[in-house]
Amino acid sequence: MQRYAIGIEFCGTHYRGWQTQQTGVRSVQQTLEDALSHVANHRVDVHGAGRTDAQVHATNMIAHFDSPSIRTDRAWIMGTNSKLPKDISIQWIKPMSMDFHARFKAVARRYRYIIYNAPQRPALLHKQVTHVYHSLNVEKMQLAAKKFEGTHNFESFRAAACQSNQPVRHVQHCTLTPHGPFLILDIQADGFLHHMVRNIVGCLLEVGQDCFDVSHIDNIFAAQDRKAAGVTAPPDGLYFIQAYYPDTFELPRPSLGPQWLNWPV
Known about the structure:
By secondary structure, this protein is an alpha+beta fold. It has two domains: 2-105, 2-Layer Sandwich (Alpha-Beta Plaits); 108-240, Pseudouridine synthase I, catalytic domain, C-terminal subdomain (Alpha-Beta Plaits, 2-Layer Sandwich). The protein is 22% helix and 28% strand. It has helices at residues 28-40, 73-83, 138-146, 196-208, 216-223, 259-262; strands at residues 2-10, 47-48, 57-67, 88-96, 108-117, 130-132, 150-153, 168-179, 182-189, 238-244. Strands 1, 2, 3, 4, 5, 6, 7, 8, 9 and 10 form a ten-stranded mixed sheet that branches. Helix 3 (138-146) packs across helix 4. The longest helix is centred in the N-terminal third of the chain and has 13 residues, at 28-40. The N and C termini lie far apart (41 Å).
């Protein structure tokens, strides 16, 4: 039996998220398992680094699977991609030791949220970014974003359906960087709660529209109540871009996808 790590890119617009759900509901995990099973000639179970919401995208979702089937790396990638829809693609594969686990060995996960701030909605970036036509106070939003860094109780920023046992997370960085009409939120943490990033973005947008002062973020944390926070931002602009592991695993670190996802922050 051989364990393999894979890096997957997908456009989540037509899926109900990463995780396999009830029969008849499209998920990235189930679609990937079906394609890999065809190449392996046996049932393959895929374990991802994390879960994504419905319609959320990924540029390098890390996952692993086990198989006794002997295939070259090229055969795994080309064969599986030929069976996948055009909005999911395996980018790389690497044989791993059996102690590697895509979820439990990850020490950090990183997302980017892309806001397109312009009077008119984009056409070519439909469902790839979140369009905001209001004028935004970017400096206030940048100050508010910094308040999420460190260790906090994120009870106010998780969905009611969140299944995590506890809401405390450590955020290594949370930065907001403008690039022309684009605003790039880059956030990395030891883990994320259900809707956590989208709820953070919703609050930042309210601050950016001068609905609240920057200090309002402190009040939301103190409330430890989802009702204290703002609306959940759309999934369109959210990308899972990387999971991080101990260097001993020597996993590839490809580019983050399109140019506007690789801009420095």
